[in-house]
Specification:
The complex is a heterodimer. Chain A contains 4 helices and 8 strands. By secondary structure, chain A is of the alpha+beta class. Chain A has a single domain, classed as N-terminal domain of TfIIb. Chain A starts with 19 loop residues before the first strand and ends with a strand. Chain B is of the alpha/beta class. Chain B has one domain: Vaccinia Virus protein VP39 (Rossmann fold). Helix content of chain B is 30%, strand content 33%. In chain B, strand 9 and strand 10 form a beta hairpin. The longest helix of chain B is centred in the middle third of the chain and has 14 residues. Classes of the chains: A alpha+beta, B alpha/beta. Strand 6 of chain A pairs parallel with strand 3 of chain B, so a sheet runs across the interface.
Chain lengths: 136, 211
């Protein structure tokens, strides 16, 4: 996933924008496409809104286009849902299509690198109180 | 349902690379309109993603099969092409409103119940900008499969044979297609039919614009 996707991604459930991005692993992108130009609303790499005065140089667009987010989490600050990024692809599935075991495995793997709001309070699944349970 | 699709894509089903003429024509139209950002909804293994990316669009693809997206991603890398892929549900899109100039939903929308189809089309409406275009096809009731399998609601069946066994298929009349497209301005609506092995394949192809 390129950072520039953050300019479009919203929570599939409540449409909150922007989502909060937590990067766990990056790689250098093998294809450096500039299709689309600089972001319009939100710069995912700098985690801030794009201002009319921003230039591609100021935003570091060329660096951004060379970077792939391989693993990470997208977090909705409104509904507390978290969405994993795996193998470079964000998984923005609604609760009923998510795999609980896979989600818990992901949380256990990265629990030391993810904020408490995801690990202990994230929806639909979290590792709260040492006891894993879904929250609806 | 997405697990069935995962199995099919793993088995190599639906991984052809041909570009359908309707989608190629849609891409030309998008170019004429200076469209920049295009979403392939239910992109599968990405045959149209590759085509749109080659043409220079900022291409986005969404599918609910992780296996399909894995194949699509590998194909993009092999061809040094780029696209933004998301694993998601067509009925609940994780994109901001009004961000796409074009949406193509090809051989995908009708694998749902009528209410699911309505939800998807309402999400397509939301994510298209004003003046944005939609190319979509619907199964017609004239197709040979109509009426086969378990009927879960009027005109919606779970197919019980062939490579699409276990999948939902909803079949529409012209009137229903018009009604489903609601506030979209329908620019073109045509029944496309062809026979193979004595079986009739029949689909509605609609080109619509968000006013």
């Amino acid at each position: 996933m390129k950072y520039r996707l953050m300019d479009l991604l919203a929570c599939p459930i409540d449409k909150t924008f922007p989502l909060k991005l937590i990067v766990l692993r990056e790689s250098e992108a093998s294809v450096h496409s500039a299709a689309g130009g600089p972001c319009e609303l939100y710069c995912g790499r700098l985690a801030r809104e794009v201002k009319p005065s921003d230039t591609p140089e100021a935003l570091g667009c060329s660096t951004c286009m060379k970077t792939e987010v391989e693993e990470g989490v997208l977090y909705c600050t409104t509904c507390s849902r978290w969405y994993p990024i795996l193998e470079g692809i964000p998984r923005l599935l609604p609760d009923q299509l998510r795999d609980r075991e896979e989600d818990l495995k992901f949380l256990r793997r990265f629990k030391d690198r993810l904020p408490r709001e995801v690990v202990e309070e994230g929806r639909p699944y979290n590792l709260s109180g040492g006891k894993e349970k879904p929250q609806r | 349902m997405h697990k069935i699709w995962d199995k099919l894509f793993k088995r190599g089903e639906f991984t052809e690379l041909d570009v359908d003429e309707e989608v190629a024509g849609f891409a030309e139209l998008l170019r004429e309109r200076n469209a920049r950002r295009v979403l392939d909804l239910g992109c599968g293994a990405g045959r149209h993603i590759l085509h749109l990316s080659k043409l220079g669009f900022e291409v986005h693809g969404l599918d609910f099969s992780a296996e399909a997206l894995r194949i699509c991603w590998r194909r993009l890398l092999e061809r040094a092409l780029s696209a933004h892929l998301v694993l998601g549900d067509m009925r609940e899109l994780g994109y901001v409103s009004g961000c796409f100039d074009g949406v193509v939903c090809w051989y995908a929308l009708y694998h749902d119940t009528l209410s699911g189809i309505r939800r998807t089309l309402s999400e397509v409406w939301r994510v298209l900008r004003s003046g944005g275009l939609l190319l979509v096809n619907f199964m017609s009731k004239r197709t040979w499969k109509y009426g086969r399998g378990e009927e879960v609601e009027e005109d919606t069946f779970i197919q019980d044979e062939g490579s699409e066994a276990g999948m939902l298929h909803h079949y529409s009349s012209r009137e229903e297609v018009r009604e489903l497209l609601g506030e979209f301005r329908v620019l073109h609506l045509e029944l496309r039919e062809h026979s193979w092995c004595g079986k009739l394949s029949s689909r509605w192809v609609a080109l619509a614009e968000k006013p």
